[in-house]
Write a structure and sequence with these properties.
The chain has 603 residues and is α/β, with parallel strands linked by helices. The chain is built from 21 helices and 14 strands. 29% of the residues lie in helices and 8% in strands. The chain is globular.
């Protein structure tokens, strides 16, 4: 669903064809008949935007007709856990859940969503799934409206066709079989994409298809490293490794159109009493960390990240000096919302790497109008894409509809290197990190994205080197040493940064010798002696994995989930190419800890 896998993902889809040849059933649910539809055992044409109804009806059927994998649901999901008695569903409150604040249009108070807990803080459960406040019964109540009749009315799919899908899913899930759910931007780019994907996750959990071979929810990525860009990340609301971006006030994130009012927070009397601050590192850890699982090591992850970015400035005991430098979320800073801000003249500059909003983003006409309000824009691409040409060329047959004299935006189009013209890692749908070697130099003035970002950073550091303004501290303290020890052999580009040095920082390294941190290492490095020996990125021993990261400033790590990809000098596991074994553990590296099946019981 939400994907034309055969045409958009031609490298992955042959595996689907091979599975079909061995007897697997392929279902394609989509408004558009495509090559994927032609190769499917069953094609269902739905109305655009009706995905939630289609999935919701499947969930309802599984719940009401015992089509779910009972033992899996009871033991490996939260279905048996009890939610607080003051929780109210959208069915009870005319479309919203308890805790909704109509003035801010946010769920400012999510306390009622929590579990009922015992004296040790553990959630209370009902393994019979009969308690009216258990998650299972709440789901039954919530999905009751999604009937086969609603599917016929909203989706335009007959009951018989829909039932074929349901029965095929049930027959190919459970104790002996699994089913994978694949989606792409046909889901994610909808305004309700998050809700669609969550419905898909609920369906797969009920069927027992998460954490098992052949199951899961496969987010088919549109480019070679969309997954990698999410991990590292380039998303506004996350730091590297899916740590949340600090927020000005956790429970009072304003609606995007009210973002201008955020500057008055702390100065008025409208801030809710229960609003939690993340202005200090301690507050951030308290509101973002967890007491159980690997997230209980959250302090080590964030402090190691700050150490990797800011070096000695991150060594102070409370960590607040460099933590203050991290931007704090004050609203919705997503792409579409930022585009509307741009349209209103609130955004001055724009960097575009491998993105073409004038042709490929939601409401391209609005995107073009928004671009006109910028002072400047930098576009890095292989050729002049529509966004780079918006100032003199209109869309399609309206190419002469633009008057350049009326557009103030100064556009810098910088040629980028193609994938074969640069080295580096890319991460695909199944979290598999692979290293790509460079085949040839880019032509002319074209350079890699790494080259551009690195040299831009160098110039900024030079520009602000003599500043005494506190606001310039982050640029001055930023560790930015990725020069190659020697120019790349055979290359005419003598100032290309060392991509493997960047990978080492992402993997993590010891700032102090391992024996001083209480952990062991098979690698030694550095020339200094004594207890105060401090390593730099270049001479430091690599950390073997995220389990040894510490929150005392003795380790640095650019992304904790990638830790282990480069555990020792000369051992770039992303470049490993041994195809042996059932799960191909020696081919590339899959985060976290090279686990090929995420959320399985052994992980």
């Amino acid at each position: 669903m939400g994907s034309n896998m055969a045409e958009a993902h031609p490298v992955a889809f042959p595996n689907v064809v091979k599975a079909k040849e061995r007897g697997a059933k392929v279902i394609h649910v989509d408004p558009h008949f495509s090559r994927t539809s032609a190769l499917a055992n069953l094609y269902i044409a739905t109305r655009a935007g009706s995905d939630i109804v289609f999935l919701g009806a499947i969930i309802r059927y599984l719940l009401e007709n015992k089509g779910y994998f009972h033992d899996y649901v009871v033991h490996y999901t939260n279905a048996a856990m009890l939610i607080r008695e003051d929780y109210r569903d959208a069915e009870d409150l005319d479309g919203v859940f308890s805790g909704y604040d109509p003035e801010t249009e946010t769920y400012a108070d999510q306390g009622s969503w929590d579990y009922q807990r015992d004296t040790k803080g553990q959630p209370l459960t009902d393994p019979t799934l009969q308690h009216p406040h258990c998650v299972f019964q709440i789901m039954r109540h919530h999905f009751a409206r999604y009937t086969p009749e609603m599917v016929e009315r909203v989706c335009g799919v007959s009951r018989e066709q829909w039932m074929q899908v349901v029965q095929t899913l049930i027959d190919n899930s459970g104790r002996e079989r699994t089913t994978a759910l694949c989606y792409a931007v046909g889901w994610t780019q909808q305004s309700k994409g998050v809700q669609i994907i969550r419905a898909g996750a609920i369906m797969q959990l009920l069927l027992g298809n998460i954490g098992r071979p052949g199951g899961g929810i496969m987010a088919l990525r549109g480019h070679a490293s969309i997954q990698g860009s999410t991990d590292i990340p380039t998303l506004y609301d996350l730091l590297a490794g899916y740590m949340p971006q600090p927020a000005a006030l956790v429970q009072e994130r304003p609606h995007s159109e009210n973002a201008d009012n955020v500057t008055t927070w702390g100065k008025n009397t409208d801030v809710p009493a229960n609003a939690m601050s993340q202005q200090t590192l301690e507050e951030y850890i308290d509101t973002s960390g967890a007491k159980l699982g690997w997230w209980s090591n959250f302090p080590a992850y964030i402090r190691s990240l700050l150490r990797a970015w800011y070096g000695e400035a991150a060594n102070e005991e409370d960590g607040n000096c460099c933590y203050r430098w991290l931007p704090k979320i004050i609203g919705d800073h997503s792409h579409l919302t930022t585009s509307y801000f741009m349209l209103d003249g609130k955004v001055r500059g724009y960097f575009l790497f491998g993105q073409n909003p004038a042709a490929g983003s939601t409401n391209s006409r609005m995107q073009r109008e928004a671009l006109k309000q910028l002072d400047w824009m930098v576009v890095r691409d292989l050729y002049e894409v529509e966004t780079a040409a918006f100032w003199y060329k209109g869309p399609g047959p309206h190419s002469d509809s633009v008057d350049p004299a009326t557009i103030k935006t100064e556009v810098f189009l910088l040629p980028a290197a193609a994938s074969t013209e640069k080295e580096g890692s890319f991460t695909n749908t199944q979290r598999l990190i692979q290293w790509r070697d460079k085949a040839v130099d880019p032509s002319g003035d074209a350079r890699s994205d790494l080259w551009f970002v690195y040299h831009l950073g160098k110039r900024l550091k030079e520009l602000y080197a003599g500043s005494r303004a506190p606001k310039d501290g982050p640029i001055q303290a930023l560790l930015w040493d990725y020069e190659r020890d020697e120019p790349e052999p055979g290359s005419r580009i003598t100032d290309e940064p060392d991509a493997q040095l960047v990978l080492k920082e992402i993997n993590g390294y010891y700032v102090r010798p391992p024996e001083q941190t209480g952990t062991g290492s098979q690698e030694s490095a550095g020339t200094g002696q004594g207890e105060q020996q401090i390593y730099t990125l270049r001479n430091a021993p690599h950390v073997p994995g995220f389990a040894v990261l510490k929150g005392d400033g003795s380790t640095a790590c650019g992304s904790w989930i990638y830790s282990g990809v480069y555990p020792a000098a000369g051992n770039n596991r992303a470049a490993s190419r041994n195809p042996e074994g059932y799960t191909f553990l020696q081919w590339g590296y899959s985060w976290p800890a090279n686990r090929r099946i995420l959320y399985n019981r052994a992980s």
